[in-house]
Amino acid sequence: MMESIWKSKILDNLCSGDYLSIWRDYGTVGIVGTIFIGILIAFLLPSIFLVRKRWKQRGVPVEVGGEPGYAVRNARVAELSQVPWKEATTMATLFEQSCRKHSQNKFLGTRKFVSKEFVTSSDGRKFEKLHLGEYEWQTYGEVFDRACNFASGLVRFGHDVDSRAAIYAETCAEWLIAFQGCFRQNITVVTIYASLGDEALIHSLNETEASTLICNSKQLRKLLAIGSSLTTIQNIVYLEDAGYETDFISSENMSKWKVASFTEIIKLGTENPVVPSLPSSHSIAVVMYTSGSTGLPKGVMISHGNIVATATGVMTVIPRLGVDDVYLAYLPLAHVLELAAETVILSAGLAIGYGSPLTMTDTSNKIRKGTKGDVSVLRPTLMTAVPAILDRVRDGILKKVEEREGLVKKLFHIGYNRQLAALEGSWFGAWGLERMFWNVLIFKKIRSALGGRVRFMLCGGAPLSGESQRFFNICMGATIGQGYGLTETFAGAAFSEWDDTSVGRVGPPLPCCFIKLISWEEGGYRTTDKPMPRGEIVIGGNCVTAGYFKNPEKTNEVYKDDEKGMRWFYTGDIGTFHPDGCLEIIDRKKDIVKLQHGEYVSLGKAEAALLSSKYVDNVMVYADPFHNYCVALVVPLRPALEKWAKEAGINYGDFVQLCENGEIISEVQRSLSKVAKDAKLQKFEIPEKIKLVADPWTPESGLVTAALKIKREQVKAKFKNVLEQLYK
């Protein structure tokens, strides 16, 4: 399940190790002596090396066409960028040229499967454990040959090149090879989340009339259950999952389709090559189905030019990309963030090592005891993540720190606060040699949780809290590149620059686009606002996609072409531009509700504040316009709730009963009120009543997307009676 994959697995497992065990390597005398040396370094030498960062103009106002507003472009470019180099106008040509240029470099790495076993827990449940070996690598030259052979094999297998091929699989090297192979024959690829439910899967495949489906072997059984509903699928290519039996493929139930393995398609193409038929920059490369925060998912039509433009823009932002960099790929490739990131990596000729949320760390649930996790073996320098992951990693490590007593805990906070002061520009922060001292003494062990070499993390999908950004800057020694973009702009919009140490912002526009603010009078956001302009965020440029597949009404609602021919996408998000040209996301139009007495409640703003409570795993604020207050559904963090119950002497049966306990509800309510007031929420923005929901919200339940965003309408529908009761 996606919840257990992204939260219970990644988040808890990253936080479960004893990252401060370094203290066992020091005796008391050694610690005291080292501290004394550190104090000398801190107070005798710091000002010698101190250099303050200067203010930098990152975005500048620009005149553009279309609806009047306040528009900004990247300060480094006068004209919008389109391609990383002259000939790379499509994904097909970019991929081919990068593979030829870096033919001998390591490209795609997959861990060797050794064995698997099943263990039984105390409650009788069985869990699969994997023994994985080192990474086995394919070079750029080898990957290009396999992609070409896959393309030829697909045609020889019977795929009609005038129809679409769908990829419904988990992230792996074969996913990317199949994806690039399709472009060798100008085949449009439909990307579908591996966690998507049956109804959405059937809708996506039938709507796009895909004739070939590429999936994991372990998902073949699922196809048997829905086969009668798939009206256009003729061919199935399965990616071999090590350790999974596929004997049932020969059964009569599979006879309605032509079925072959990925290896068989490669072999077929190797023996029967087909001349490539390459796309143009305007050809639709991908129909990417969003996870859908409302209703059925929509297919976004992304051109080759869109993909190349975003990759070009992001490559200018990530600092010092070099041959020693290694990228860990584990997020869904069907998500625009991961696909854009891997496109940037292949454009730069770097290595991609594939991992899994279930095998990422030494303590991950699917890793056999004694086997190293993906980060320990790969030791990546580059990663992507969504805020939900980073927030929980931070909370887990801080929990471990708080459990330590005495000197260890005090030194962590001293070192952290000294480095925090330096990041925020204080003369009294940890600079130069003192910073090295704290890194060796405190943070080196913590950084080993992610392999010890991560220097840059790309974060997107939702706003990242300033606390989490600072934590990873200090404890992981990593620069956080916080991005803002959408599937409709192929993740391209804004991206914070590596030397910008501010928090809460998403940087200036990427070189491939303009960002314009349009006044929204009803919500009270205007481009004339002081001290900074505010309004709805509208994105225009080379990354803006063609629209929604077979949905002209919705396309015309949010896409517009101006008199100069530039295409603009209306995001529905509310932003403000800082004087240096950096964008900050401050609200969302759909999340604003007008209460009975005329006050406006920003649901997203309130939820972001309430999530900082130590008791909250997820929360949805609900406001009925016929009342003058709001309420909330709260998914609590079980360990925190059970800990408080134990300390308070509360007896309970199961967790559901605990969530219904009046004292527990009051304690959570007090915590929510405190964090809300700390965030300066108005009284009417603070939930007056709450309901604790025992079961977590997962993508499989249909209550959150694969990127863990709330599906507000689905949650409202499921808890309709509960919400009505909260208003009685």
UniProtKB/TrEMBL annotation:
Residues 129-549 form the AMP-dependent synthetase/ligase domain. Keywords: Membrane, Transmembrane, Transmembrane helix. GO terms for cellular component: endoplasmic reticulum; membrane. It comes from the Eukaryota. InterPro entries: AMP-binding_CS, AMP-dep_synth/lig_dom, ANL_N_sf. The chain crosses the membrane at residues 26-51. GO terms for molecular function: long-chain fatty acid-CoA ligase activity. This is Long chain acyl-CoA synthetase 8. It comes from Cucurbita maxima.
